Amino acid sequence: MRSKTxxxxxxxxKIEKLEQRLINDEIEPITHKKWFAKLSTEKxxxxxxxxxxxxxxxxxHLLNSAQLNGKHLLLNKVFEGGLVWMGRYFEHPGFxxx
Length: 98
Known about the structure:
Layout lengths: L1 H22 L5 H29 L1 H7 L2 H11 L5 E2 L4 E2 L7
Antiparallel strand pairs: 1-2
């Protein structure tokens, strides 16, 4: 997650430098628009990845603190293919060893 956070900081710095270049008339508005769109898309993607990693790293807490319905929703999402009872344990159909 540190690398994603560092990448987000780098992109924010690039956006800030881009804004400064526009203010100082070092680049044309069309160039600014092109790079701003690209960097903004990259920034949004990184923010989503960081938020997702944060949620996944707290999955144990999330599962333990959820109501029964929330637990079912979470487990159904994680195990979309369902689980198969193998007599003494569950397996995911995609990982059946037999």
